[in-house]
Amino acid sequence: MVLIGAHAHGTDPVAVAAEIDAQCVQLFLADPQGWKKPVRRDDADALLASGLGIYAHAPYLVNVASTNNRIRIPSRNMIAQHAAAAADLGARGLIVHGGHVGDGDDISVGIDNWRKTFERATFPVRVLVENTAGGDNACARTLDRIALLWDAIGQYDVGLCLDTCHAWAAGEDLETIVDRVRAITGRIDLVHANSSRDEAGSQRDRHAGFATGTIPPELIAHVVREAGCDAVVETPADGQAQDIAFLRAALAG
Ligand SMILES: [Zn+2]
After folding, report:
1. What is the pLDDT of residue 135?
2. Do 174 and 217 contact (CB within 8 A), yes or no?
3. Ligand 1 centroid to 163 CA: how many Å?
4. Centroid of ligand 1 to alpha carbon of 93 (angstroms)
């Protein structure tokens, strides 16, 4: 069964999920802007007992592609720590952004750094690499780059998280994106079903609710339907119930 849910805002994801009728929730397990190690959540037992599908999102600072070892090494450690904490919650995946190299760096070095991440460690929860919105040095913005990345890491137990806002911002055609991504990766494990505040091709990563964003809501639903996997809305809290209801109705129809 495909689960439709949300990135849970606030401190009580079980209560939020009930309020917005989410079947799965995505959580940060530590400060998303920090390097702190996750600690066991007070509501871990409640989450486990809830029957909700759980996804964990790694902090934004994680960049295993980096050519700077003071970023790359802690990033790898962070994936290991967050994967362990995610496993304790029975999570279905740990979402990690595709990352980037610095200006003037060779992208192939960043791609190889991704490969080394999996060559050197296995994780108790599957890492889902997420496509990102902008930047010429990104490893997972364009499909060409995702193809390079998958050549390097596809042999490992790794999945893909497709964010509709990011793909839109990257200038991708959402009508055909699922087939084109799957032709490269063979899989899509999770859709981040978001609209965008900006026009297609903007390279800006600003999520919006379905009602106010620039992506036709039907097109977001189309991506979720084609992907046939769980979907999480990462939209503003006040519209999540509506966004989830829209997706569920669209998938049922
Ligand atoms: Zn996302």
Report:
1. 85
2. no
3. 5
4. 13
